[in-house]
Specification:
Distance between the termini: 30 Å
Number of domains: 1
Helix content: 25-40%
Number of strands: 11
Number of helices: 5
Order of helices and strands: EEEEHHEEEEHEEHHE
Oligomer: single chain
Radius of gyration: 17 Å
Shape: globular
Length: 272
Amino acid sequence: MNTDSNIDSSHSGAGKVKAVMTASARGNRIRQEDISLALADQGVFVVADGFGAGQSGVSAARSACEAASAFLVRNSGDQDATLPFILRRYFSLAGNMVFNALIHANREMVNSNRSKPAEMCGGASVLAGLLDGDFLALGAAGACSARLLRGADAPVLLNRPRTYHQLRNPSANPGLQSIDHTECDMPLMALGVHDGFEPEVFELHVQPGDWVLLHTDGMPARLLEEFAGIRTDVIQSGVKLSAIQDRIKSALARSQSSGELSDNLAFSLILF
């Protein structure tokens, strides 16, 4: 089994966050090209799914996470930070921040790819989040997903992954229905591919007790169901943070050992 996970509790900076668990698993792939980054104190969360030949996918996922998170940490809370970048009046300040963070990261990656031969270029699907008080803004490009677990309800899909599979099967991937991930699925938008890029932004008022799961496209349906079951147990009987951590790790290990986890996976589970 090739998994790495950790849990970090924070009540400073992003004061609404009780804990964050980040994890990654290689599945049956040769290399790990999915990355999760969480800076709970700054309220910054990024997951990326890289693609490209050799190590280019790994490098692209890392570059996407680093560029987007650095932009958010540097500029969040600054009323003028979106200038001279793009300002969308129908987004909140946090929404404009994640919008511009992904545009910035895309520019960095496109410029880097221009100096490389075609076979060494890489790109990445990305989902970036910024928490401003009780307001969570998410910027997405490609195959990553965000899900809300609230109360005893089934997980709610907050965004629609932009992939070829979703184009052919628009009813796939809502809530707890089976995640039909195919080996030939490709993102229809991604960072590092071209200049004409505009991310999709989703905004949410979080509530105490919410769980928000940001993940790449390797999430098996059964593992998502286990997360929802753990969340239900927390509501019904109360579970300590350490027990939640242990159960999440065990669920991930079972998914890996059973062969259900065939693709790379990276996620951030944010507990409010």
